[in-house]
Design a protein that fits this description.
The protein is an all-alpha fold. The protein contains nine helices and two strands; from the N terminus they run αββαααααααα.
Length: 190
């Protein structure tokens, strides 16, 4: 942000990390994640705090949404949202913004998967592609892989469990694979 605003040049090199690091060669920079726009205010403290708070709020809202999709009432859903968003494991990662950006979107992914499998709608899968793309753009590939493993186990569990309203199993697997492929193609920008 400082390079773009003060020197009017695209930041290819970051001299303050280690002995210098190539910004776009760094696999965990998250330079294309939408929250990077907050840093254009040129107030690093405000932008960092707002980024962390937005990730925590997103984690809570996603948890609440997933619980409501599963049929829980408002109060237990709210308790689950507070537990996930304010958990020590989640808040302990606030120094690594890319990790909490990915973790914050996991409950939204699970809610969209549940709706896609049980409601027989293909439109939900586009929302899942968007969520997975945002996770990829956050650029912490190990955390993204862990979230993907959770999502795939959830897809398989929903596919082969006794849900009466679910889509045909072959369509779920095909839509899941296409969603992942499209996500990786969109994330390849980074």
């Amino acid at each position: 942000v400082q390079s773009l605003l003060s020197q009017r040049e695209f930041p290819l090199w970051e001299p303050r990390i280690g002995c210098g690091t190539p910004l776009f060669a760094e696999s965990e920079a998250g330079i294309f994640h939408p929250t990077i726009l907050l840093f254009f205010t040129n107030n690093l403290t405000w932008a960092t705090n707002l980024t962390v708070l937005s990730a925590i709020l997103l984690a809570m809202l996603g948890s609440y949404f997933w619980c409501r999709c599963l049929g829980l009432e408002a109060l237990p859903s709210g308790a689950a949202a507070l537990t996930y968003g304010l958990a020590a494991v989640f808040l302990g990662q606030t120094q690594a913004l890319n990790i909490i950006h990915i973790s914050a979107l996991l409950p939204v992914s699970l809610a969209l998967i549940y709706l896609g499998v049980t409601k027989k709608t293909k439109l939900v899968w586009f929302g899942l592609i968007t969520v997975w793309t945002l996770q990829l753009l956050a650029s912490h590939f190990e955390t993204f892989a862990i979230c993907q493993i959770c999502c795939w186990f959830y897809i398989l569990w929903l596919t082969f469990s006794d849900t009466k309203k679910s889509m045909p199993k072959h369509k779920i697997i095909i839509l899941s694979l296409l969603s992942l492929l499209f996500t990786v193609l969109l994330g390849s920008v980074q």
